[in-house]
């Protein structure tokens, strides 16, 4: 059963810049270039037929293209037990608007999570032996990557593997330019 999510691919230049931030540290599992993305909405596991219907429903998306910029860093979890180290988004309003346009299209297959949306690109996963992230957070607090035009949203599948999850694009949906 495929595990699905809707997200954005990163341009190569932005992915390279984020990969360059990687610092060795105990308990940190840095993402590879193929794992870098920005999730718009997590769907979860669906059967093949349901996934096909979802993919078809998303083709009705009519949203404008928008400029996006990665900036700032943070983490999920507590300072003593961080789980995820991430890079954020400078001005998330267009991304939030896209998410609000996606939500009605996915309702037949996915309950919309009411949790606040924190747009981010996962940089690293933190294991139990992860050291303090404070030095990294301080060093990268002014992070700003070059903005780019987001011209498509993607339906991804996620497969767990020994080196972490592998993501594949099932479908791309162009945004209106």
From TrEMBL:
InterPro entries: Cyclic_Pdiesterase (IPR009097), RNA_CPDase (IPR004175). GO terms for molecular function: 2',3'-cyclic-nucleotide 3'-phosphodiesterase activity; RNA 2',3'-cyclic 3'-phosphodiesterase activity. It is an enzyme of class 3 (hydrolase). A motif (HXTX 1) lies at residues 37-40. Keywords: Hydrolase. A motif (HXTX 2) lies at residues 120-123. The keyword Hydrolase applies. The keyword ATP-binding does not apply. It catalyses: a 3'-end 2',3'-cyclophospho-ribonucleotide-RNA + H2O = a 3'-end 2'-phospho-ribonucleotide-RNA + H(+). Gene3D superfamilies: Cyclic phosphodiesterase. It comes from the Bacteria. The active site is at 37 (proton donor), 120 (proton acceptor). Its EC number is 3.1.4.58. Coiled coil: none annotated. Belongs to the 2H phosphoesterase superfamily. ThpR family. Hydrolyzes RNA 2',3'-cyclic phosphodiester to an RNA 2'-phosphomonoester. This is RNA 2',3'-cyclic phosphodiesterase. The lineage of its organism: Bacteria, Pseudomonadati, Pseudomonadota, Gammaproteobacteria, Pseudomonadales.
């Amino acid at each position: 059963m495929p595990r699905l999510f809707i997200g954005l691919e990163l341009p190569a230049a932005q992915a390279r810049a984020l990969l360059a931030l990687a610092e060795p540290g105990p308990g940190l599992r840095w993402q590879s270039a193929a794992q870098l993305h920005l999730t718009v909405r997590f769907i979860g596991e669906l059967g093949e037929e349901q996934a096909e219907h979802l993919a078809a429903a998303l083709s009705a998306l009519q949203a404008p293209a928008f400029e996006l910029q990665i900036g700032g860093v943070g983490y999920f979890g507590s300072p003593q037990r961080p789980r995820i180290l991430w890079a954020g988004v400078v001005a998330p309003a267009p991304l939030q608007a896209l998410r609000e346009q996606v939500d009605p299209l996915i309702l037949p297959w996915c309950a919309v999570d009411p949790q606040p949306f924190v747009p981010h690109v996962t940089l690293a996963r933190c294991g139990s032996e992860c050291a303090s992230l404070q030095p990294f957070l301080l060093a990268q607090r002014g992070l700003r990557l070059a903005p780019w035009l987001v011209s498509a949203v993607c339906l991804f599948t996620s497969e767990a593997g020994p080196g972490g999850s592998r993501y594949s694009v099932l479908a791309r949906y162009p945004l209106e330019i």
